[in-house]
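Field: COMPLEX_INPUT
Field: COMPONENT_COUNT = two
Field: RESIDUE_TOTAL = 924
Field: MODE = joint
Values follow.
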Amino acid sequence: MRLVRPVHTVVTRHPLRWSAAALVALALAVAGCGSSSSSSPSAAPSSTGKPGGTFTILANSSFGVADPAQNYTLQEWQLLIDTHDGLTTFAKENGLAGTKIVPDLATSIPTPTNGGKTYVFHIRHGIKFSNGQVLKPSDFVTTFERQFTVPGPTAFYSDIVGASACSTKGCNLSKGVIANDSAYTLTINLTGPDPELMDQLALPFAFAVPSNTSLKLLGNNVPPGTGPYMWKSYNPNTELVLVRNPYFKQWSAPAQPAGYPNEIIEKFGLQVSDEVTEVMNGEANEVFDGDQIPSDQLTQLNSPKYSSQVHVNTLTADWYMALNTRTAPFNNVKARQAINDAANRTAYVKIAGGPSLAVPACQILPPNFPSYQAYCPYTTGSQTVWSGPNLTKAKQLVQQSGTAGMKVVVDGTNDQVGKALVEQMVSDLDSIGYKASAQLLAASVQYPFVQNSTNSSKWNVAWSAWYQDYPAPSDFLNVLLGCGSIHPNSDASPNIAAYCDQSTQSQINQAESEEATNPSGAAKLWTQIDHEDTNAAPWVDLYNPKQIDFLSSDVHGYKWNPQWYILIDQLWLS
Amino acid sequence: MAAITEQVEAPADLRPEVVGRNPWALAARRLWRNRLAMAALILFVLIVVACLAAPFYAYHVAHVNPLAPNLNGTTVINGKVVPVMQQGGGTLKLGETPIGPTWDPAHYALGADDLGRDVATLILYGGRSSLLIGIGSAVLCCVGATVIALIAGFFGGITDSILSRIMDIIWAFPVFLLLFSISTELLTHSQGFQFGPVHVSASSLWLPTIIIAFIYLPYVYRPVRGQVLSVVRKEFVEAAIASGASNLRLVFSEILPNVVSTVIVLLPLMIATTILTEVALSFLSIGVQPPNVSWGTIISDGEDLLYTRPWVSIAPGIMIVLTVLALNVLGDGVRDALDPRSKLRVGAAW
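Field: COMPLEX_OUTPUT
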């Protein structure tokens, strides 16, 4: 998932950018298998939580339209996981355990039949929505059909039989999603095997809503869910309020544990510096983790006084500069490798807030991710860890490529961090003999601009960032660098570099098909693909970001889930 | 009251120092004798000279590459080599903070910005952009507005109506709303201005210059047009018409010399206004674009460092205050020097 950019240091999870046409991708944040390296003692899960109280989150802005079939922001997803459930979910556990898929509204994870194309789910009995309505398998038919009738990122479920004929005008999934309300089963038929279906079903897009929910966009009205909380109100300009769902009874602690606070409030519209001050003063409980804490206040947070209130976690995400492989100079692999060798990743890490908040990266897959094996061919010394730019080699490669002296346009966003990253890249390019210039665009414009091939003659290097949708290598290697992710003339073409290598694509296809039958073989293949893509250098990988959670001193029970990040309802107040 | 009457009634025009002198020489003399205005002029010239000397300061005094990021750089403080960007302390070590002022011109006198660049050097380079855009757009605006006002006022009728209504339309928009809209579109959406074969890239200083000049056109046009309308009806213009003077001659020989003093009075005040406008635009990232810097971009870069490194924002702020103050005082002085009524006052003083 591509997130809107952070400004200083911290990973932002503001409205994700998605595009209706498209593709794959985006969705939640991160994860990786969990190297939740929280810095405080309270990071350990607490088993002595005290229910009650109001948990208040402060956020700079809201997450836009709340309809769960459309919203693609982690900001809302962190709350939707407390109010809604899907057939499966990522376990609501701290750290690595949180990447495990567990059954939620389904009683178990089914084994696929029909060559991996059919899944039969048994739905739990006795679960009620927050409006009192009893959950039935047929509710899921509406849920999936809404994926296509409500404009949103439909690609996650496009393999369901009948989905190809769906549009915002109507959808009939009678052959793809078959509900049997008497047997309490739900059958999902796919057009082809999809080893990542369980991950995709755990995303909030697939959270169950009552069957009588409108197939049209609901705007800021969130339909009833089955979780421990329900939406009382949401005003994007002021605040949202979640209160307890009176019909909730815990059925699976790993999937949907009961929450601690009686009420969860998220207030919008404050300056981040004010948010930090309020949390410092105990007037609120959390600075929304997508808001970027200004440098000045980061310095304050270094004080021992706040050490137990600050939590830093490594994200499975990449910040990178895509190299336009359609045009010179970066249609030449040596030119691409040259800038990879020249990129001063220490400088980029400093822009991100220093080594405590980012880790230099050379390869596509982030650390702590399935199939990740440290690899860095673009540095001096070791081939596994980046230690410094190799300018001598970079200059040689530029000469060999015959591209020295060419003009290069570096495209990025016009916020503080965006500007800094672009200026550093311009400096790195200049240092190896290119004539680089900056092109800064508004954040809302930049991402579609660089994706659309009609603009490909206007830039050579483009900033981008990617946060995992779910922990699967294909979410990086196929979504961002697969040949199928190039969509000419579309604003939703996540392979920004337009890099397509047919032999690598064959390996990707093979790895995907082997995931179900030969997982260890597939994992090795993904590692190989990662290294091959890194050698082909369609990107300059800059760093893997970390994330800060800042909580008030009366908050306990901090848990950080690699998929959902902070588990809000598992926090309790003293 | 008696004193004023005495001044007004004083036969100043008959004094030997004034009688028969060129009015421009008289104005220059009045300006020269206005100590406050001269002090402002000297201050403004000093600022301009300092900014022009930016490359000398960067390469020969501060020994830095002025606009390139220097995040991994070092400098010397009290004989010790220290990194320009310093990692946060405590156990968490969050954030990177640039070094603060050393007050040593050779070693980051005013500290570093968030890219590790020397703030003192940036201020001089930023001043070049701010002054260039400020002066450029003010001159462009004044020249453009004067030409339009001459055409409108001289030809009158439908020409005047059309031109005046166009100016009214621009006038009707709140200045900054229109400014931000145009700048946002041209700088961050369209990557510059394209009109037929004319292309101005987003990173060019010409773009904010043209935008600001355009926005302020009506503000100069209105008083100048009024002046043109009053001059056109004067007897000496009628006499020139009667003697068969061409339109061009009427405009350039008879009317323009009599309205130019209005433009000259407006110019320094317009420069002050356009500098402030440029700063506002750049502060919002829709003015000067990297790799160029301006006082506005430096203040913006220092926004996140207000508590720990306030000089990143304060220093360019001081330069803006001094420049605008100097221009306003100078503008007042020029107005006093060119205002016909001031002749009486100056004459009385003599």
